[in-house]
Design brief:
By secondary structure, the protein is α+β, with helices and mostly antiparallel strands. Helices cover about 15% and strands about 55% of the residues. It has helices at about 1-50, 105-110, 280-285, 400-410, 435-440, 505-510, 530-535, 540-550; strands at about 55, 60-70, 70-85, 90-100, 115-130, 135, 155-170, 175-190, 195-210, 215-230, 235-245, 250-260, 265-280, 305-315, 320-335, 340-350, 365-375, 375-385, 390-400, 415-430, 445-460, 465-480, 480-490, 495-505, 515-525. The longest helix is centred in the N-terminal third of the chain and has 48 residues, at about 1-50.
Length: about 575
């Protein structure tokens, strides 16, 4: 009985002691919570706004000891940072809620050590106006010259989880926009030996990538596997073994970015993207804006191998040097009208934004360009310079079928059905602007010189409702002067043979020149006077507009001069 009573006394004493400890713990928690909340608010505000023009709006802090026991969870709500630089208030960061798992021991020693971070509903913005003034997380903080400083603490984040993070950077000075969102990201990271490391997976969308020439990418799903390191003392970041899906293909990213310590703003870049991308998207990015309508409604199952490098200084008013190299093997390209197609195509090309890093010094070079058809092989070498007023220097040599030729030579102005063409021509000069007939008539034409031989050609010219079939002819080209030799075929129902010299013949038939001059010998089995009179009439505006609506920019000489 005495033993039983003693055990009861011990049990009661233990319960009393446990109750006392719990009571003391609750009391300490209640007394310390307000202090911890106040300390966290001061720490967050100081770290986010120190020596800058950033203004942090009032935000909430909640502490929970039970959510991730034995750790403490701090929930920060309604974080909002505004950059007040240049006498303008621009919201640069908002966070709906951020949950931080804290080590309790460090809090008592006035230290904040986070081991887990979860972010919900964030919005990051960066803006550069048309004068080059910038707003972002840096605020008014002046750039410190020389090396950076290693952080005073080391820590590891077991988990970084992000939900619904919107990002937009807009540069009105450079006329560029990058917008995207991260639906979900799972990362791990930390700071060790003066370097931040992040590893993980991000899922989201690239909403818009645009520059002064137009939108390049829109509403594309992206998944990225990231490996990143940032050295604080060197102020240098590095990507390695990083890849992302874009347009259904995988792109690898490697390289560095570093603070340009000798500049008031800007970053030195040395980045390389490599992989495969859809052919039409690559051509859209590499060609001058004036040629992009040529790709309208074009489709291709083919993909190009690309290497895209970005190097040099990049800042609010400074563009880096960019080079895009791309290659095709056995590619195909087609338009809705079946007469325009390229069935097999090999190509090596390079886009370079030039020494001034702008459209005026940009160029694209197509080499090892071969278009194959059952008739043979057409070799094309082309360089386009100055994307504001594209200057073309190219040569075409070889044999091809007429539909392939119609895909690159004045598409839309004539419709090829069949036939073969042997070519050896040189094209040099300014590309005529699309849709501006007055300007085209008053600028110098492309110089087109060489020879073309057509066999069994059949095509139509919509502007004058002309159909040509069974055409065999050797054509010597000297700009607008054409020498026709051994010509025979059927022209609008009239079978003919001819040897003649013409000026402005094709541009007259397509409604781009008011007259043509033809001198030579002709044999016609039946002369249709009514059709010849109709050919002498200028096409109506309605007919020309219908042709222009289907036209894509090509290499037809505007023929505004006589050689």
């Amino acid at each position: 009985m005495k033993s039983l009573s003693f055990r009861r006394i011990l049990a009661v004493g233990f319960l009393l002691l446990l109750t006392l400890l719990l009571g003391l713990g609750v009391a300490v928690w209640l007394l310390g919570r307000d202090y911890a909340i106040s300390y966290l608010q001061r720490t967050v505000r100081a770290q986010l706004t120190k020596n800058s023009g950033l203004v942090l709006a009032p935000f909430t802090v909640e502490l929970s000891a039970w959510r991730d026991f034995p750790h403490v969870t701090a929930s920060l709500g309604h974080l909002a940072l505004t950059d007040t630089s240049h006498h303008r208030a621009v919201p640069v960061l908002t966070v709906g809620r951020a949950d931080l798992r804290l080590e309790l021991d460090d809090l008592w020693h006035r230290k904040v050590r986070v081991t887990r971070l979860e972010i919900h509903d964030a919005d990051f913005r960066q803006l550069v106006d048309s004068l080059g003034h910038s707003w972002g997380l840096r605020g008014k903080r002046a750039r410190r010259p020389g090396e950076g400083k290693d952080p005073l603490v080391n820590f590891s984040l077991d988990s970084i989880v992000v939900y619904n993070f919107h990002i937009i950077t807009r540069n009105d000075y450079a006329h560029s926009t990058l917008a995207g969102r991260i639906d979900r990201a799972r990362l791990t990271g930390g700071i060790r030996q003066g370097a931040l490391r992040l590893t993980g997976v991000l899922d989201g969308y690239l909403e818009q990538l645009a520059n002064r020439t137009g939108t390049l990418i829109a509403h594309e799903p992206v998944r990225a596997w990231v490996n990143y390191r940032y050295a604080f003392k060197a102020r240098r970041g590095e990507f390695w073994r990083t890849r992302a899906t874009l347009n259904g293909d995988t792109i690898s990213l490697a390289g560095t970015h570093a603070v340009a310590a000798d500049q008031p703003t800007g970053t030195n870049l040395n980045l390389q993207f490599s992989g495969n991308q859809p052919l039409v998207e690559v051509l859209h990015a590499a060609l001058p804006p004036r040629l992009r309508p040529y790709l309208a409604e074009a489709s291709s199952p083919s993909h190009a191998q690309i290497v895209y490098t970005i190097s040099g200084l990049s800042g609010p008013t400074v563009r880096p040097h960019t080079v895009l190299t791309f290659g095709l093997r056995n590619a195909s390209l087609a338009w809705p009208d079946s007469a325009r197609r390229i069935n097999r195509w090999d190509l090596q090309g390079t886009y370079d934004n030039g020494p001034a890093h702008n459209l005026r010094t940009a160029s694209v070079t197509l080499k090892e360009c071969r278009i194959y058809s059952p008739a043979g092989q057409l070799n094309v070498a082309v360089t386009l310079r100055n994307f504001l007023r594209p200057y073309l220097d190219g040569r075409l040599r070889g044999r091809t079928e007429l539909p392939e030729l119609a895909a690159i030579f004045s598409p839309g102005l004539w419709h090829a059905r069949r036939g073969t063409a042997d070519l050896d021509i040189q094209v040099r000069g300014l590309l005529p602007p699309r849709g501006n007939r007055y300007f085209a008539q008053n600028q110098k034409s492309l110089s087109v010189r060489g020879t073309i031989e057509l066999r069994g050609a059949a095509f139509s010219v919509p502007a004058r409702h002309v159909a040509v079939s069974a055409l065999n002819v050797h054509i010597g080209l000297r700009d607008s002067l054409w020498q026709l030799t051994n010509a025979s075929g059927v022209f609008d129902g009239m079978r003919f043979k001819a040897a003649a010299t013409t000026t402005y013949l094709l541009t007259y038939l397509t409604g781009q020149h008011p007259s043509t001059e033809i001198t030579g010998r002709f044999e016609v089995d039946e002369l249709r006077i009514d059709r010849l009179r109709a050919l002498g009439n200028q096409p109506t505006r309605r007919v020309l507009a219908a042709c222009a609506s289907t036209r894509r920019v090509g290499w037809l000489p505007s023929a505004r001069r006589r050689s």
